[in-house]
Predict the structure.
Amino acid sequence: MERLLKIERTCGDTTIGGARRIGLESESLVISLPFARVVWCRPTAVTVTADGRVLRRLLVDVTRLAQVGVIVSGLAALGAARWLRR
Amino acid sequence: MTERTVLDTMPAPMGLDRAREILDRIVSVAQTTAVWSVPVEKDGTMVITASEVMAGAGFGFGGGRGPAPSNRSGEPVGETHPETESAGGGVGGGGGASARPVAVVLVDAHGVRVRPIVDVTKIALAALTAWGAMLPVLIRMRRGR
Protein backbone atom coordinates (compact mmCIF):
# COMPACT_ATOMS: atom_id res chain seq x y z
CA MET A 1 0.00 0.00 0.00
CA GLU A 2 1.25 3.44 -0.87
CA ARG A 3 2.16 5.88 1.87
CA LEU A 4 -0.29 8.72 2.48
CA LEU A 5 2.41 11.37 2.43
CA LYS A 6 5.69 11.05 0.58
CA ILE A 7 8.45 13.62 0.18
CA GLU A 8 11.09 12.88 -2.42
CA ARG A 9 14.27 14.72 -3.26
CA THR A 10 15.54 14.03 -6.73
CA CYS A 11 18.54 15.19 -8.70
CA GLY A 12 17.84 15.54 -12.39
CA ASP A 13 20.13 14.83 -15.27
CA THR A 14 23.46 16.56 -15.18
CA THR A 15 23.94 18.87 -18.10
CA ILE A 16 27.27 19.86 -19.49
CA GLY A 17 27.54 23.64 -19.81
CA GLY A 18 30.98 24.39 -21.20
CA ALA A 19 33.55 23.05 -18.72
CA ARG A 20 30.92 22.85 -16.00
CA ARG A 21 28.60 20.13 -14.90
CA ILE A 22 25.20 21.19 -13.71
CA GLY A 23 22.94 19.18 -11.44
CA LEU A 24 19.29 20.12 -11.15
CA GLU A 25 17.64 19.30 -7.84
CA SER A 26 13.95 19.17 -7.10
CA GLU A 27 11.63 18.18 -4.31
CA SER A 28 8.22 16.61 -4.61
CA LEU A 29 5.38 16.06 -2.21
CA VAL A 30 2.93 13.30 -3.03
CA ILE A 31 -0.35 12.89 -1.18
CA SER A 32 -1.96 9.56 -1.97
CA LEU A 33 -5.52 8.87 -0.96
CA PRO A 34 -7.52 5.77 -1.94
CA PHE A 35 -9.28 7.56 -4.78
CA ALA A 36 -7.21 10.69 -5.25
CA ARG A 37 -3.65 11.82 -5.62
CA VAL A 38 -1.94 15.21 -5.44
CA VAL A 39 1.62 15.92 -6.51
CA TRP A 40 3.52 19.15 -5.88
CA CYS A 41 6.96 19.36 -7.37
CA ARG A 42 9.29 22.34 -7.09
CA PRO A 43 12.87 23.10 -8.03
CA THR A 44 15.19 23.52 -5.04
CA ALA A 45 18.77 24.04 -6.13
CA VAL A 46 21.33 24.02 -8.89
CA THR A 47 24.66 22.31 -8.27
CA VAL A 48 27.57 23.49 -10.39
CA THR A 49 30.77 21.47 -10.50
CA ALA A 50 33.75 23.24 -12.06
CA ASP A 51 37.49 22.68 -11.56
CA GLY A 52 36.77 20.17 -8.83
CA ARG A 53 34.77 22.68 -6.82
CA VAL A 54 31.10 22.21 -6.10
CA LEU A 55 28.86 25.26 -5.83
CA ARG A 56 25.26 24.85 -4.73
CA ARG A 57 22.82 27.64 -5.46
CA LEU A 58 19.42 27.54 -3.83
CA LEU A 59 16.40 28.58 -5.84
CA VAL A 60 14.14 31.05 -4.10
CA ASP A 61 10.52 31.30 -5.16
CA VAL A 62 10.11 35.08 -4.92
CA THR A 63 6.44 35.02 -5.90
CA ARG A 64 5.59 32.50 -3.15
CA LEU A 65 7.58 34.49 -0.57
CA ALA A 66 5.78 37.69 -1.53
CA GLN A 67 2.40 35.96 -1.33
CA VAL A 68 3.16 34.64 2.15
CA GLY A 69 4.52 38.06 3.15
CA VAL A 70 1.35 39.82 2.05
CA ILE A 71 -0.89 37.40 3.97
CA VAL A 72 1.31 37.49 7.10
CA SER A 73 1.43 41.30 7.04
CA GLY A 74 -2.36 41.41 6.79
CA LEU A 75 -2.75 39.03 9.73
CA ALA A 76 -0.16 41.04 11.71
CA ALA A 77 -2.08 44.25 11.04
CA LEU A 78 -5.26 42.56 12.25
CA GLY A 79 -3.52 41.30 15.38
CA ALA A 80 -2.01 44.71 16.07
CA ALA A 81 -5.39 46.40 15.68
CA ARG A 82 -6.95 43.96 18.16
CA TRP A 83 -4.10 44.47 20.61
CA LEU A 84 -4.36 48.27 20.40
CA ARG A 85 -8.12 48.06 20.95
CA ARG A 86 -7.66 46.53 24.41
CA MET B 1 -28.50 -15.40 -12.74
CA THR B 2 -27.02 -15.37 -9.24
CA GLU B 3 -26.40 -12.25 -7.12
CA ARG B 4 -22.70 -12.36 -7.92
CA THR B 5 -23.22 -12.43 -11.61
CA VAL B 6 -25.64 -9.49 -11.38
CA LEU B 7 -22.93 -7.41 -9.67
CA ASP B 8 -20.40 -8.56 -12.20
CA THR B 9 -22.45 -7.05 -14.96
CA MET B 10 -22.15 -3.58 -13.35
CA PRO B 11 -19.94 -1.25 -15.34
CA ALA B 12 -18.11 0.17 -12.26
CA PRO B 13 -15.12 -2.22 -12.13
CA MET B 14 -14.36 -1.61 -15.78
CA GLY B 15 -14.47 2.15 -15.34
CA LEU B 16 -12.47 1.92 -12.11
CA ASP B 17 -9.44 0.55 -13.91
CA ARG B 18 -9.72 3.25 -16.54
CA ALA B 19 -10.08 5.95 -13.84
CA ARG B 20 -6.97 4.64 -12.03
CA GLU B 21 -5.05 4.69 -15.29
CA ILE B 22 -6.08 8.30 -16.00
CA LEU B 23 -5.20 9.29 -12.40
CA ASP B 24 -1.70 7.87 -12.80
CA ARG B 25 -1.25 9.62 -16.12
CA ILE B 26 -2.30 13.02 -14.75
CA VAL B 27 -0.06 12.71 -11.70
CA SER B 28 2.93 11.51 -13.76
CA VAL B 29 2.96 14.97 -15.38
CA ALA B 30 4.55 16.42 -12.23
CA GLN B 31 7.99 14.89 -12.53
CA THR B 32 11.52 16.23 -12.39
CA THR B 33 11.56 16.43 -16.17
CA ALA B 34 8.61 18.81 -16.01
CA VAL B 35 10.21 20.96 -13.29
CA TRP B 36 13.38 21.60 -15.27
CA SER B 37 13.08 22.51 -18.91
CA VAL B 38 15.30 21.19 -21.66
CA PRO B 39 18.42 23.43 -21.81
CA VAL B 40 18.40 25.86 -24.71
CA GLU B 41 21.71 27.26 -25.91
CA LYS B 42 22.09 30.46 -27.92
CA ASP B 43 25.06 32.76 -28.45
CA GLY B 44 27.10 30.89 -25.86
CA THR B 45 24.45 31.17 -23.15
CA MET B 46 22.55 28.17 -21.89
CA VAL B 47 19.09 28.83 -20.50
CA ILE B 48 17.21 26.40 -18.24
CA THR B 49 13.76 27.27 -16.89
CA ALA B 50 12.70 25.98 -13.48
CA SER B 51 8.98 25.64 -12.82
CA GLU B 52 6.78 24.59 -9.98
CA VAL B 53 4.44 21.84 -11.12
CA MET B 54 1.27 20.76 -9.37
CA ALA B 55 -1.06 17.97 -10.40
CA GLY B 56 -4.04 16.39 -8.77
CA ALA B 57 -6.72 13.91 -9.67
CA GLY B 58 -9.51 12.05 -8.01
CA PHE B 59 -12.40 9.82 -8.82
CA GLY B 60 -15.40 8.21 -7.25
CA PHE B 61 -17.77 5.45 -8.09
CA GLY B 62 -21.09 4.11 -7.05
CA GLY B 63 -23.47 1.39 -7.87
CA GLY B 64 -26.58 -0.36 -6.75
CA ARG B 65 -29.11 -2.97 -7.60
CA GLY B 66 -32.76 -3.40 -6.95
CA PRO B 67 -36.00 -5.04 -8.02
CA ALA B 68 -37.28 -4.88 -11.52
CA PRO B 69 -38.55 -1.51 -12.67
CA SER B 70 -42.12 -0.75 -11.66
CA ASN B 71 -44.80 1.02 -13.60
CA ARG B 72 -46.34 4.39 -12.62
CA SER B 73 -48.68 2.84 -10.06
CA GLY B 74 -45.72 1.23 -8.28
CA GLU B 75 -46.53 -2.30 -9.32
CA PRO B 76 -43.54 -4.35 -10.31
CA VAL B 77 -43.18 -5.13 -13.95
CA GLY B 78 -42.61 -8.77 -14.64
CA GLU B 79 -41.94 -11.43 -12.09
CA THR B 80 -40.06 -10.74 -8.86
CA HIS B 81 -37.38 -13.32 -9.49
CA PRO B 82 -33.69 -12.53 -9.01
CA GLU B 83 -33.38 -12.71 -12.78
CA THR B 84 -35.50 -9.59 -13.08
CA GLU B 85 -33.31 -7.58 -10.70
CA SER B 86 -31.45 -4.76 -12.31
CA ALA B 87 -28.15 -3.20 -11.43
CA GLY B 88 -26.31 -0.03 -12.36
CA GLY B 89 -23.20 1.84 -11.54
CA GLY B 90 -20.83 4.47 -12.71
CA VAL B 91 -17.46 6.05 -12.28
CA GLY B 92 -16.59 9.72 -12.43
CA GLY B 93 -13.54 11.74 -11.79
CA GLY B 94 -11.47 14.74 -12.64
CA GLY B 95 -8.04 16.18 -12.41
CA GLY B 96 -5.71 18.82 -13.59
CA ALA B 97 -2.17 20.04 -13.65
CA SER B 98 -0.57 23.46 -13.57
CA ALA B 99 2.93 24.81 -13.87
CA ARG B 100 4.41 28.17 -12.91
CA PRO B 101 7.90 29.38 -13.82
CA VAL B 102 9.98 30.08 -10.71
CA ALA B 103 13.43 30.94 -11.99
CA VAL B 104 15.73 30.94 -14.96
CA VAL B 105 19.24 29.48 -14.76
CA LEU B 106 21.73 31.14 -17.10
CA VAL B 107 25.03 29.46 -17.82
CA ASP B 108 27.61 31.42 -19.80
CA ALA B 109 31.32 32.21 -19.84
CA HIS B 110 30.92 34.39 -16.72
CA GLY B 111 29.45 31.60 -14.63
CA VAL B 112 26.07 30.36 -13.50
CA ARG B 113 23.37 32.87 -12.60
CA VAL B 114 19.94 32.24 -11.16
CA ARG B 115 17.33 34.86 -12.04
CA PRO B 116 14.02 34.63 -10.16
CA ILE B 117 10.75 35.14 -12.03
CA VAL B 118 8.28 37.36 -10.21
CA ASP B 119 4.59 36.90 -10.99
CA VAL B 120 3.16 40.33 -10.13
CA THR B 121 -0.40 39.27 -10.92
CA LYS B 122 -0.30 36.47 -8.36
CA ILE B 123 1.12 38.79 -5.69
CA ALA B 124 -1.48 41.47 -6.45
CA LEU B 125 -4.28 38.90 -6.27
CA ALA B 126 -2.98 37.63 -2.92
CA ALA B 127 -2.82 41.21 -1.62
CA LEU B 128 -6.33 42.01 -2.83
CA THR B 129 -7.75 38.82 -1.31
CA ALA B 130 -5.94 39.16 2.01
CA TRP B 131 -6.55 42.87 2.52
CA GLY B 132 -10.04 42.66 1.06
CA ALA B 133 -10.94 40.12 3.75
CA MET B 134 -9.19 41.98 6.57
CA LEU B 135 -10.28 45.54 5.82
CA PRO B 136 -13.96 45.03 6.74
CA VAL B 137 -12.85 43.42 10.02
CA LEU B 138 -10.58 46.38 10.80
CA ILE B 139 -13.38 48.87 9.95
CA ARG B 140 -15.84 46.97 12.16
CA MET B 141 -13.34 46.95 15.00
CA ARG B 142 -12.83 50.71 14.63
CA ARG B 143 -16.57 51.41 14.67
CA GLY B 144 -17.06 49.18 17.65
CA ARG B 145 -14.82 51.38 19.80
In short: Chain A has a mean pLDDT of 85. DSSP finds one helix and five strands in chain A. Residues 5-85 of chain A form one domain.
